[in-house]
Specification:
Blueprint: H1 3-23, H2 37-40, H3 53-63, H4 86-98, H5 109-126, E1 132-136, H6 139-154, H7 159-162, E2 170-175, H8 180-188, E3 196-199, H9 209-221, E4 225-232, H10 244-253, E5 257-261, E6 286-289, H11 291-295, E7 302-306, H12 310-316, H13 347-381, E8 386-393, E9 396-401, H14 405-418, E10 424-428, E11 431-437, H15 445-458
Parallel strand pairs: 2-3, 2-4, 4-5, 5-6
Antiparallel strand pairs: 1-7, 6-7, 8-9, 9-11, 10-11
Helix pairs in contact: 4-13, 5-13, 6-8, 6-12, 13-15
Bound molecules: pyridoxal-5'-phosphate.
Length: 460
């Protein structure tokens, strides 16, 4: 296959993509497939001889879409969304066509400078004063980068050279509502799971600042070294928010760095009326939010805003001779801000997205999702034997059957076997609950109303 063949097949793929998206409402959100079924249809070894593209294409059509969970289905209400607005998909096609590495300014000047500009656009749109930042693949990487920086700063930049043996026991603090990516960061950064101190939350799910202060004091008294605090702005389980201002103030008073995980909820902050939920984020050292979740930038696209990028660059930056740009020491080389060296041109999809829908267009979608989630929660709570477990936090809520965990779990099984909608579960306050998040880019009020319809039909 050469680039002339690619011209032909790209057009074919574009037609298929449009038809695929138009067909989504007629498909079950999740495939009816057992583990191992799909792999059985593939040969054991790679082909020795080239195959015609038509054969490969036919196999794709025959095998793949029917074995996929359709994340762009308008009735996908599971996990969090991974939206891919058409304009961002188009940008991805262009980025793929150029297939450039955006690691140094000179390896991709437009990508580097566009990244600087769109981060500034987004910071202003979110009401953040952070004018600098970087695009990562995922929030997991952003949080790992922040935690590595916390570690190095606390160790006086010696961990990078000397390693951690002989270092005091490091302590990181987060609420019990934060995402497992914080646990992963603590593990990978050599801090250790046991030294990630999960601070208790109050009835609203917010970290108790007094408990945070007390934990830091107790750790210091025991000879341990606190390194930083991760605040939760929209937890994955039920959408919990810390009172960010209080948490960041404690961190600052204790001389610790703060990082806010707003991977999901951050997108909503383009609407001024929701910003009270993360009041104080503007004072944090680092904030992560994922436009690839709710905003509409195709995965992967995770933004980390930094009050001062210096400590992170000092932690992650390396400049061997083969990566130097002679005569241009002061330019931005984004590989020095992130864990991987190689980087995709991710700014392009944000540039397309923000221009094609405008902030007002994106706000309208998010406001609709929040309103429709509230309506869905009310409709479900009105059904016999159904109760709200957690009320809507933005567009995420959870519900259960009053008859208990086993009945609720069985109901979820019936809902997902039905296929018209897709929901997932969580545990909250010791209880099994069904999570509902509304946020798919193209969903309508009717799609969301389907949740109560399906549940009412499938009640025991
Ligand atoms: N933080 C929160 C609150 C999340 O909900 C998630 C994923 O759902 C993450 C972090 C991790 O995101 P990513 O998949 O971008 O690493």
């Amino acid at each position: 296959m050469n680039h002339e063949d690619l011209r032909h097949w790209s057009k074919h793929a574009a037609d298929w993509a449009a038809d695929y998206h138009a067909s989504l409402r007629d498909r079950p959100v999740r495939p009816d497939i057992a583990p191992g079924d799909f792999a059985k249809a593939l040969p054991d070894l790679a082909p020795e001889a080239a195959e015609p593209m038509q054969t490969i294409w036919d196999d794709f059509i025959r095998l793949v879409p029917g074995a996929m969970t359709h994340w762009q289905h308008p009735r996908f209400f599971a996990y969090f969304p991974a939206n891919a607005a058409p304009a961002s998909m188009l940008a991805e096609q262009l980025a793929n066509a150029m297939a450039a590495q955006a690691m140094l300014w000179q390896t991709s000047p437009a990508a580097t400078e566009m990244e600087v500009v769109v981060l500034r656009w987004l910071a202003a749109a979110l009401g953040l004063p952070h004018t600098r930042g970087v695009i990562h693949d995922s929030a997991t990487t952003a949080t790992l980068s922040a935690v590595l920086t916390m570690r190095e700063r606390a160790l006086g930049w010696e961990g990078l050279s000397k390693g951690l043996s002989g270092a005091p026991r490091l302590r990181l603090y987060a609420s019990d509502q934060t995402h497992s990516s914080v646990d992963k960061a603590a593990r990978l950064a050599g801090i250790g799971q046991e030294n990630l101190v999960k601070i208790v939350t109050d009835a609203s799910g917010a970290m108790r600042a007094d408990a945070l202060r007390a934990a830091i004091a107790a750790d210091r008294a025991a000879g341990m070294l606190p390194i930083g605090v991760v605040a939760c702005a929209g937890g994955t389980s039920v959408g919990a928010f810390d009172r960010i201002g209080e948490v960041v103030a404690v961190a600052r008073a204790e001389g610790l760095m703060s990082h806010v995980d707003a991977a999901w909820a951050g997108s909503a902050m383009i609407c001024t009326e929701y910003r009270a939920l993360w009041a104080g984020a503007e004072a944090a050292d680092s904030v992560v939010m994922n436009p690839h979740k709710w905003l509409g930038a195709q995965f992967d696209c995770s933004l980390q805003f930094l009050a001062d990028p210096g400590p992170q660059i000092r932690t992650l930056g390396l400049r061997p001779a083969y990566l130097e740009t002679p005569g241009q020491e002061e330019i931005t080389n984004f590989n020095e801000w992130t864990v991987p060296l190689g980087r995709r041109f991710r700014a392009l999809k944000l540039w397309f997205l923000l221009r094609a829908y405008g902030l007002e267009g994106l706000r309208a979608r998010i406001r609709n999702h929040v309103t429709w989630a509230q309506e869905a929660a009310a409709s479900l709570a009105a059904l016999p034997g159904v109760e709200t477990v957690t009320p809507p936090s933005l567009s995420l809520f959870s519900f259960a059957l009053t008859s208990g965990d086993a009945a609720t779990e069985a109901l979820l099984g019936r809902i997902n076997a039905d296929g018209r909608i897709y929901l997932t579960q969580t545990r909250h306050a010791g209880r099994y609950a069904i999570r509902v998040q509304v946020g798919q880019f193209d969903c309508t009020a009717e799609d969301v109303a389907m949740i109560a319809t399906v549940v009412s039909e499938l009640l025991p």
